[in-house]
């Protein structure tokens, strides 16, 4: 999740922000990493199930109900529900909705929709966080290209995760991939550290910036990396529900996110759905 992947706008204070700044970036112990693996596996399982069950005619409320039920069945609690007042267990953002879409019974999914599903699970004191973009049946070639570019950008960023590299190595790889495909990187939201809190230091930008310190990566860091890619303008606006962000030009948006561990020799994708 941007704040929520992260995501409230960057200007919105995150919970315990001052405490996190004093403590700095937390490195997880072997025991804590193992718990995060379990939390992240729960998230990956839920997203895989949703990707396999979703079809035209379902509502985003249907998907939210499934996610909450399964998260609780696996011994965890939904990270998002109640966070800053967010009312659901997933963010379900359709087409021009960028992030933080609120699931509801009125949003019926149709063939050709581009659906972003972001969710988190809190297990034994730690969070896992991940997002996927799902094509509802066949989508347009333009939508398919956008989705592929966003997913490619995520993995290009993850490839830069290794001890001794820097956050802006991740950001630069993501930005270059997105621009090479002719799309724009949303700059209103960022990735983040994740662990005891859903959002921790550091902010993980998806574009080159001097706004934040360029932190060196160290083993034991756990990061939620989550590029958000728009078909048109990079700019977004928040709807009257005070949560849902949409593209200003009504263009499509896609997002992918993984919780990633920095290891001594590279990285481990904790929310990897391919290993379930």
Low-confidence runs (pLDDT<50, min 5 residues)?
A: 4-22
Class of secondary structure makeup: alpha+beta
Major β-sheet annotation: 5 strands, antiparallel
Beta percentage is: 15-25%
**Number of individual domains:** 1
User: CATH H level: which superfamily?
Assistant: Creatinase/methionine aminopeptidase superfamily
How would you describe this protein?
There is one protein chain. This protein has 276 residues and is an alpha+beta fold. The protein has one domain (19-275): Creatinase/methionine aminopeptidase superfamily (Creatine Amidinohydrolase, Alpha-Beta Complex). Helices cover 28% and strands 25% of the residues. The protein has five helices and 16 strands. It has helices at 17-23, 30-53, 60-73, 141-158, 167-180; strands at 2-3, 77-78, 90-94, 97-99, 114-123, 126-135, 184-185, 191-193, 200-204, 222-225, 228-230, 236-238, 245-247, 253-255, 258-263, 266-269. Strands 9-8-10-15-16 form a five-stranded antiparallel β-sheet. Strands 2, 3, 5 and 6 form a four-stranded antiparallel β-sheet that branches. A three-stranded antiparallel β-sheet has the order 4-13-12, with no helix packed on it. Helix 2 (30-53) runs antiparallel to helix 3 (60-73). It is globular, with a radius of gyration of 17 Å. The relative contact order is 0.20.
